Amino acid sequence: MSPLDLETDVLIIGGGMAACWAAIGAARAGAEVVLVDKGFVGTSGVTATAGPGHWWVPPDPALRAAAIEKRHQAAFGLSERIWAERVLETTWRTLPQLAAYYPFSRDGSGNTYYPGVRGPEYLRALRHCALDLGVRILDHHPALELLTHADGAVAGAAGYARLARRPWTIRAAACVLATGGCAFRSGLIGSHTNTGDGYLMGAEAGADLSGMEFSTIYTLSPAWCSTRTLPYPAARFFDAAGAELDIPPPMADRAHHRALAKAMLEGPVFADLSEAPEALKPILRRIQPATIAPFERRGVRLFEDRFEVKLFGEGTVRGTGGLRIVDDDCQTTVHGLFAAGDAATRELVVGASSGGGSPNSAWALTSGQLGGAAAARLARSEGRRAGERAFARGRAGLRPAGAARDVDERAAIGVVKDEMLSYDKAFWKRRASLEASQLLLDGVWAEIAGHRGAEGLDQVAARETASLVATARWSTRAALVRTETRGLHGRADAPDLSPGGARRLLVGGLDTVWSRFETPAVGALLAEAAA
Amino acid sequence: MIAHIFADLCNGCQACVSACPTHVLDPGEAGGPPVIARLDQCQTCFMCELYCPQDAIFVGPDQTRAETIDPVAIKASGLLGQMRRDHIWDAPPGDLAPLSEYWKLGPYLMGGAQIAAERYARKHK
Lengths: 531, 125
Prior knowledge:
With 531 residues, chain A is an alpha+beta fold.
C-alpha cells in the first residue's frame, strides 16, 4: 500500500485520556487535528482498562486551599501550588462537559457523580466527543519518530500503520506527546503498549526528562493476571505453609509494599479477601467487571479461596517522572512540542509522591486541555511550515549506527525487567546495584542503537524495545544521582532526606546519558515569580 | 490470554481486530473469523470481548501463558459475553443503569483499607 502523507495544524500522538483531552482541547480552539495511536482509541492504555478518579474539589476557596496544601505537603518540596490550582479548576470545569457522551450517574445523595469514571465507557465517550469535534483519529498508527525543522522546532512525526501495513508521515505546526508512561513490560493491565515511546521520541528531538528516579511503585494482583484493585485493600496475607504474614496495611503505603515484596522474595504469598467489606461482595461485578473474570474463569472464589498474589510494577505510570514541562502551556524544551498525561512529569502537581489515582487523572485531563489549546494557538500564529524541509530524528531501532544484525530482543527486554522490576533492586536501591544495572543497560543500548535495524511492522517492536531500554537507563541514572530517600525514590544506602535535595533532577541523552539538578531549585523559582 | 474465537458465532466484522490495543489479531479471510497472530502480545484486558457484538471471542484468565479451552464447555458455561453483560455495554445513550453503582468504588476502597488498618492496629497495640 502506498505511504500516507498528511498535513494538519495539530498532531496528537497517543490514544488514552490525555491524548483525547488534548485533541478535544485543540479542536475546540479551532485547529485541524489528527490523532495517531499505537492501538485503538477506546481500549489503549492504562486508563481504558481501569477506572480513573479525578482529583475533585469544589471551587470553594477554603476547600481548594486545604486540598492544595495537603497535596503540597506530601510532595517533598518538588511541586508548585499554582499547578495544583490549575489542575483542580480545569478538571472541575471540563469533566462535566462530557455529559452528552458519558452517563454520569447519581451518588448516594442523589447528586450527579462526576469524579470517578469507568475506563472503557470513559474512553469510548472521549473518542465520540473528539470525533464529533472533527478530530481525525487514526487507530493502529504507531508513531516511530518525530520530525523537526532546521531551527529545532517540531515539524511532525512519522510512523507505521500496523493494520494497513504502510508508512505514514504527518506534518504539523505543533505536536502533543500523550504516549503514556512506561511500566517496563511488567504485565500491569493496560500497559503492554506503554513502553516509554514518547520519552524516546522527545529526547531524540531535544527534550529533557525530569523525575525519572520516582519510578518505584507497584500494584497488587493475583499472580496469574493483573487486575484493578477494588477487592484487595482488606486482604490478609499468608505464606505457603499457611502462616499469616504481618503486613502493614495499604494506608502505610511504601511499608505495605516493601513488606509484601520481602515476603515474596522468600516464597509465594497468598491473599485472603474474606474480610473485605460485606456490602462490596455482591456488587463488585457491577463496579469492576474485569476484576471478577480472572477469578471466575479460573474457578477461584474471590472472597472465599486463598490465592497467590504478586506485585506488578507501574514504573512511570503511577511514578511521577516524564518529559520536562517548561511553561504554563505544557510545552517541553522543544518548540512546538507539548507533553500531556503520563508522558509528562507530574512533579509539578505531586512532586516526589505518586499521583496514582486522582491527581494523575486530573493532570492528564488538564495537561491535555492546556497543551492541546496551546498547540492550536501556536499553529495559528506560526503556520504549518509544511513546505520547509524536515529532519527525521529517530535513531535506535530505526537507523542503527553500525551494521544491522540480529539482536536478541527478548533478552534485551529481559534485562530491562530484571533491573527495573526485581523487588530487591527496586525497593532496596544501593549504589553498587544501580551501577551494575547501569552497566548492563548501557550494554543493551549499545547493541540496539548500534545494530537493531527493522523494516515494516517490525519497526514498531524495535522502537518499543529501544524506548524501554532508554527509559530504564534514565530512571537508573536518576536513581543513582539522587543519593537520598525522597518520596517514591528510596535508597537503602541513603535512607534519609538530604537537606539540599528539594530540587528536580533532569536527565536526558541517548548514547551518553546526562543528568543535572534543575537550577534554580523549585523554591527559588517560586520566590522569583512572587517578587 | 485470548483462547478461542468461535467460528460458528463470528460474523467476520473484525471489530475485535480493530479494538485490540496490542495488535494480537489479524483480519481473517473475507467474512471469516480473525486470526490469533501474536498471542505473546495479549495482555488479558478483555477489551476484545467487550467490543465483540456476537459474543464470539473468549479470553482465558491467565496472562502468563497460552491456554487451551474446551469450546463446548465454554459455550455451556454461560461465560461468553459475560463482560458485555456485566458492563451493560449496549445500554442506550443516557441510560444511567450501567454505572449506577460506580460511585461506591471510592468508599469501598477506603472501607477495605480501614478494615486492614484497624486489624493491624489491634494486633500491634
